[in-house]
């Protein structure tokens, strides 16, 4: 397999910025998946007098999860149109909708669908962090 040395494109969004999004998306995913991993870890146990003796810090957990999601949402909303389109195109390349050779097409499609709901769209992707990582790797950034 030959690797191209020259690129036909240049990212407006820095790869380090994308990596920050990846870290935030992983933290968000971990916060959500943590509750489901063990299955029984949040069950309430009752003693003989039928009182709940389980301490659940649900509000703190929920607040932490929402903070991470809100931070990521704000970061995405702060991107300019080109950067937001590139982030969407990277996710599509990472997901396999396009390959790296089709970067120009992926970017054009992402620009066509650009709207104020980019953050909602991206945060709705279940494997956003993985897809962004794979997209960066595919284009060699």
UniProtKB/TrEMBL annotation:
Which InterPro entries does the entry mention?
A: DUF3775 (IPR022254)
Highest taxon above the source species: Bacteria
Instruction: Tell me the protein's name.
Output: DUF3775 domain-containing protein
């Amino acid at each position: 397999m030959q690797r191209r040395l020259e690129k036909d494109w240049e990212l407006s969004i820095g790869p380090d910025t994308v990596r920050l999004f990846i870290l935030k998306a992983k933290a968000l995913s971990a916060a959500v998946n943590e509750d489901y991993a063990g299955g029984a870890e949040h069950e309430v146990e009752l003693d003989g007098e039928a009182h709940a003796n389980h301490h659940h810090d649900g509000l703190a957990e929920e607040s932490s999860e929402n903070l991470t999601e809100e931070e990521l949402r704000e970061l995405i909303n702060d991107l300019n149109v080109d950067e937001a389109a590139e982030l969407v195109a990277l996710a599509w390349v990472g997901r396999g909708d396009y390959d790296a050779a089709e970067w120009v097409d992926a970017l054009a499609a992402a620009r066509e669908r650009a709207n104020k709901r980019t953050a909602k769209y991206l945060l709705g992707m279940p494997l956003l962090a993985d897809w962004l990582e794979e997209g960066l790797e595919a284009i060699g950034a």
